Amino acid sequence: MDYDVIYIGSGNAAWQGGRFLRKAGLKVLIIEESLYGGTCANRGCNSKALLDAPYEIKALGDNFEGVGKAGNFEVNWPELMKYKQKRIAGMSIFLDNKFDEYDLDVAHGKGVIVDEHTVKVGEKKFTTDKIVICTGLKPVIPDIKGREYLHDSTDFLDIADLPKHTIIIGAGFVGMEFASILAEAGLTADVIVRGDMALKYFHQPYVQNVIEILKEKNIRFHFNEQVKEVLCDVEIENPKEKVLNVVQGMNSDETLRDPEAKVDNKAYENAFTVNCESGLSLKGDYVIAAMGRTANVEDIGLENVGLTYTKQGIKVNGHLQTAVENIYASGDVADTGIAKLVTVAIHHSKYLAKEILGEASEITYPVIPAVAYTIPRIATVGVPAYVGEKSDEYDVHTIRYGRSYSLELKNDLTAEAKVIVDKDLQIVGAEIYAADAENVANMFAFIINQKISLEELDNMIYAFPSSSSVCLYKLHKIHYKF
Q1: To the nearest 5 percent, what fractions of the chain are helix, strand and coil?
Q2: Nearest to 38 by CA among 60, 16, 67
């Protein structure tokens, strides 16, 4: 065999564990068709974090309106975009150098599985003992008239200037996070939602809080609407026409967008009309399809080894094995029933290294915090509040730590958490609505995973002032019942 392990894909689902296998003496090859590091490094998490940060700061500054604020913090998007492009351009190079440092072999091109022990890149074939599929997800584009005018998250995170009026189809992570940026930029957007709720996996009262803030800042919501067509009033030279075929297991009205397709990514003033089945008609400068992502597995040779898949990915067992014993799936492309987050992909990759080395039993998962990076943030970890409210096994306590500690929280008056405890007063879940909800969620994840009791928390000393310390102090309400 040429290699012990071949990874198809170079994101966190691959290299995080691959480096440990190489350190253990195994020969490892990473195959990448596009940029080293995958979506998160080059077209997702990092880009979003960099572009979101100034608007987060602007919102924090607005907390001091009338109590010391002088002037306005303005964000220059074109300059910010130049900075983002410069920083992100180095990510793939950085990771290529890290692969060299870890002594991981790389092959650039599309990896296609030929048989259970062979992967082809171009005309070259590599043999291996084990194959790990880490190809991630791709954006879903509705199969409607005018789909070539729709942009995806990759486009928006690279746009030269923000549109004055954006139409967003979808209200999941991408749709709501982009809506927050547009709101803080003082621009207008219409958000079209197929169902009756946004961010459906998060605590809905907190989601509603965000929606109300967005409405006040000229973001309009249209629920229970199905988009029928997108029309364009101007001639566009390079619309995004390269769309992939319908994937097995997807709905008939869904297709895949090729993220490498060339596109005219400019906004055109009032040039687009989005018509819905209900008769709703909206005009705007730019239209984003934020309808989720689906398995990126077309044309990688799954049929050659008898593997099937759905939009959720390739089904795996508790060892991340597919139906073919020596072929695994890791990260977002693996259908595990667990949230598709970069943190989970890293967990998969490190687990697989131990599994391949014969050092692991079935994979287990700690509680997993998830965050919607809206402004303000919403986070959830462990047992959700809606479960706690409907079960006799749990009690749900509301901790309004922002109202009590606004001085310490930079005037964040609305910071709040719902804390779910079992009958032994052990914390098992939390929902957080706050400017830094992600940090408070990590704190609760540690508490839940380590089963730290309220009494133990009460005996600890924390840095003050801080959001974690004041939230923890308010847990006295549960411990002492006053």
Answers
A1: 30, 25, 40
A2: 16
Q: Is residue 361 part of a domain?
A: no
For the chain, the domain total comes to 3
d(CA 327, CA 318): 13
Q: Which of 356, 384, 405 is the last residue of a domain?
A: 356
The full DSSP string for 376-397 is SEEEEEES-HHHHHH-TTEEEE
Q: Give dist(CA 40, CA 136) in Å, integer.
A: 10
Per-residue pLDDT tens over the stretch 215-251:
999 999 999 999 999 999 998 877 765 555 544 445 5
**Range(s) of the domain holding residue 144:** 139-292
Query: Tokens representing 232?
Result: 């364009």
Question: Does any domain span residue 365?
Answer: no
CA distance linking residue 472 with residue 478, whole number of Å: 11
Q: Are residues 111 and 27 located together in one domain of the fold? A: yes
DSSP state string for 209-251: HHHHHHHHTTEEEE-S--EEEEEESS--SS----EEPPPTTS-
Q: Is the pTM of this model over 0.90?
A: yes
